């Protein structure tokens, strides 16, 4: 499904770009169709950057990205446009994920503006179906983002992404801004969507419980590198790296 | 939570003055007792009276009628000039802020150059070289004021550009044009309204100054700047000729600026409320 090999990304900042930060350092991973790869690590370890690199939302410095058998590392933004509907991202903060000046209905119609999917009737039907799928009603369509709760907004965002029938979703800490009961609901929705549409997830989180509940495989990221990748069970039973042990310990003690 | 009713009384007075002036300008043909350019040789330099509310000038033209028609000229031109400036400044500011990189550098270089040039001298130079006409005035005002505008807009865009919803819609496949029109523009609209309002006040002043110097509106057009220019030789003996248009300019500019402030207060409070709900 997605095959990433040896990608790196360096950010330059400061006067004349003299401060270099190697956010992602020679990372490789792959995700099989319909499976979830969990990505854990402390903040600043490069998880989010890696997610955006995989979707080509930001260009990588070196390395190859193969999506669905096509190498996309050298695709221009224009070439990417056709692939955009197959690979999407869900953000951490649902409150800033929708345009505050647009009604929910308008935001949900947007995927159809950029991709030729169907006519108006089909569109309305689809929106209703997806809203129902994420557990929301059509009465929300005329409201604006600030009138909805965080959990509702995150579900609207999920519905908006599902409308495009993506093959790969990067979930960038999708639950960390929500309270625990809502977290469970959102994860349930995501799991159902995966079952129904066979989507692959790259699930980024620092919450090990959430990751464990969702992932088939888990990769641990530390200072821009993936230091360990195992199936979820194995990782919890016998972590290979010292850092992973520490990470698990701190979490269990907490 | 502060709403429109809780605004200071000064803002309400400003709004009242502005409304008064607007209606005066709109209904000038109905209200004005005389044709603004009608010369009455027997009634020159009269002081205030029932027949001539604000007296007459050296050619016997009714000052009150000229003030009313002058409001038309000033407001119409100020709105047109502010719109031109907005169009130019906002477009360049949005492009500069959104795309960044080399485009940003070039536009900001231009902005720096234009901001570095003294505005009034530039305006006089442009209006002087091109000759007095509405088009040259419009160009003079636009060229000397777009830079500040585009800088403010750029700042606003830079702030919004980093929001998740921009990145989100970009990953949905939106074009830069779509994002600029549907995402950036509506989100900086409040700031634009305030800038626009304040800008109108400044333009009224600039245009009066240019007219006074003989580079703006041309006599016998009933314009406030032209009237002040005509009155300057008589003002010791007939101060009403000078005070009437002068006070009108003052009142219009002050009330527009105050309304700009009021709008800023209202909008900023509303933004806070939005945040509170989030």
Automatic annotation (TrEMBL), chain A:
The EC number(s) this enzyme carries: 3.6.3.24
Record bears the keyword Nucleotide-binding: yes
GO molecular function: ATP binding; ATP hydrolysis activity
Pfam family, one: ABC_tran
Keywords of the record: ATP-binding, Hydrolase, Nucleotide-binding, Transport
ABC transporter domain sequence ranges: 2-248
GO BP terms in the entry: transmembrane transport
Superkingdom of origin organism: Bacteria
Alphabetical list of InterPro entries matching this protein: AAA+_ATPase, ABC_transp_ATP-bind, ABC_transporter-like_ATP-bd, ABC_transporter-like_CS, P-loop_NTPase
Keyword Heme carried by entry: no
Family according to the record: Belongs to the ABC transporter superfamily.
Protein name: Nickel-transporting ATPase
Organism per entry: Pelosinus fermentans JBW45
Automatic annotation (TrEMBL), chain B:
Alphabetical keyword list: Cell membrane, Membrane, Transmembrane, Transmembrane helix, Transport
Primary localisation category: membrane
A cellular component annotation (GO) from this entry: plasma membrane
Membrane topology reported for the UniProt record: Multi-pass membrane protein
Domain of life (superkingdom): Bacteria
InterPro entries per record: BP-dependent_transpt_permease, MetI-like, MetI-like_sf, OppC_N
Membrane spanning stretches: 9-32, 75-99, 106-129, 135-153, 165-185, 191-217, 238-259
Domain ABC transmembrane type-1 positions: 71-260
Places the protein is found: Cell membrane
GO BP: any one term: transmembrane transport
Record-stated family: Belongs to the binding-protein-dependent transport system permease family.
Protein name: ABC-type transporter, integral membrane subunit
Taxonomy of the source species: Bacteria, Bacillati, Bacillota, Negativicutes, Selenomonadales
